[in-house]
Amino acid sequence: MIFGCCFLYYRYFLSIASLQNEENLRMMNYLVKYKKKWNAMSPVAKSSMAMIFAKFFQKGLSMISGPVFTRIMSSSEYGIISTFTSWQSVLYIIATLNMASGVFNNGMIDFKKDRESFTYSIMCLANLCTFLCMGVYFLFYRWLNPLFDMPVSLMAVMLLYFIFTPAYNYWMGKQRFEYRYKGITAVTIVTSLLSFVLSVVCVLMASDQYKAVTKVMAAESVSIGIGVFFFISIIIKAKGKIKFAYWKYALEFNLPLIPHYLSMYVLSSSDRIMISKLINTSATAVYNVAYTVAGIMLIFWNAVDASYAPWIYQQMERENYQSIKVRGNQVLLFFSGLTILCTLFAPEIICILAPESYHSGIYVIPSVAAGVFFTACYSLYMRLELYLKKTKTVMAATCSVAVLNLVLNYIFIPEFGFVAAGYTTLVCYGLLAFFHYCCVRHLGFSHVYDNKRILGLSCFVVLITVIISEIYSYMMIRYSLIAVLGLIMVIKRKEIVKMLKK
What are the TM regions of this chain, as residue ranges (predicted)? Predict the structure, then answer.
């Protein structure tokens, strides 16, 4: 009997071990299959996918941190953090010239044999601008502090951030240009985690009146620390040699882009400010929840654009226009699908993001989603202008559209409510895409993209989003459209996967 029981136990454990081995084998086969698919992808696709993952991780952590900090801090203290973040976004452009987003890509092409020296030279130029801004601030801080509405200690932290963070951004730009996505992904994830954990721990330990200052210092210390590391690394690699010819090159290219960057900030933020002034803050809250969808789509676009920009510069240098045309069509086709999906699922998205009192925000999603599609459109054309160093035309287009957006918001928001802000923004982004197309055509490079297809796709996206916004009350029709779109995606899945791999 004992022998029989032992034999049964033995058979039982053998079967368990066999099942585990089969499970492990299936897992290994799955991983091998996944690795083969990953290896088959182009460097641009790998880089884009890795950066999308890193950006969503960063954004997800940011969304989690919001409720955490609002529960351990007072509203006034949390307001200081919001003020700091807003001013940091604007002042960074002025204090560092924001060269990582402009002249850096051109320098990687024009000075490919001297990239280290170019990077070090423009880093020193950015630091010089920061020190000049620092001098102005400390000379006039009695008058400037009421404007910034922040303690001097936070302004000092911000200035340190401006000194060291450009080094990190230049390193990121160089890695993207060479499609070294692993380092970017790892650093982004580690930095986000460290910043979040350190901020929570420090805020919990701080006294109530210093929680805001502590949170900012803890979060920024991580960014500054990473920046210091890359700051030193860039100095060592360049052997401390500054070439002032690169300063002239960078200033001629990037100074006209400063109004462009500031105008883009106005274009993306003025609608919420004007809704608060012309209607009320409750309407702004509803609009802001709906605009979260645009924020998610922009994460996708910024990640794709970060990899696409270096690639397009390299293809332009080789005069490989056909490849640019094909990829441009694929990118816009992908974003048109994303726009339509977000518009179709607007009611469900709002239900997830906010309570029933915010449900009127569903009518904002179609216009802001289509606005992101036009962001992708104008970015494709603008990349050609930046490659050709036509930064003044970029500045003129963006500044004109930003002013128009303010005028349209002032006219239509009081008349039609906060929903009008989404459509005025859509119109402005559409005009911006048209202006950049006209500039590229004037420069003789309109043949680089399939303009007729882009126009047709743009008209289709606008038409379908407007139609969808009119059928939100008809659930069966909307779900039928979702089913049809899902069926098309299933039928065309191989083509979609093939496109994403490229």
Answer: 78-97, 118-140, 152-171, 183-206, 218-237, 249-268, 288-311, 331-355, 361-381, 393-412, 418-440, 452-469, 475-492
Global pTM?
Answer: 0.84
DSSP reduced 3-state for 279: coil
Q: How far is CA 357 from CA 270, 282, 346, 375, 406, in A?
A: 24, 10, 15, 30, 28
What is d(CA 301, CA 96) in angstroms, rounded to the nearest whole number? Answer: 24
Helices (H) and strands (E) in the chain — how many of each? 20, 0
d(CA 253, CA 105): 11
Taking only the tens place, the pLDDT of each residue in 362-421 is 888 899 999 999 999 999 999 999 999 999 999 999 999 999 999 999 999 999 998 999
Q: 270, 405 in Cβ contact below 8 A?
A: yes
Please answer whether residues 55 and 122 qualify as being in contact, where contact means their C-beta atoms are separated by less than 8 angstroms: no
Span 88-114, average pLDDT: 91
* pLDDT at position 59: 77
Rounded CA-CA distance 124/243 in Å is 10
**Distance separating alpha carbons of residues 14 and 48, to the nearest angstrom:** 45
Question: Over the Cα atoms of the chain, what is R_g?
Answer: 26
In this model, does residue 20 exceed pLDDT 70?
A: no
Tokens of 337: 């699908």
Say how far apart CA 358 and CA 353 lie, in whole Å.
Answer: 9
Residue 334 buriedness (CB in 10 A; 0-12 / 13-18 / 19+): middle
Provide the strand spans (E) within 109-183.
Answer: none
> Sorting pLDDT into bands at 50, 70 and 90, what band is 257?
very high
Sequence spans of domains, the chain: 1-40, 43-255, 269-470
Structure tokens given for 218: 């803890």
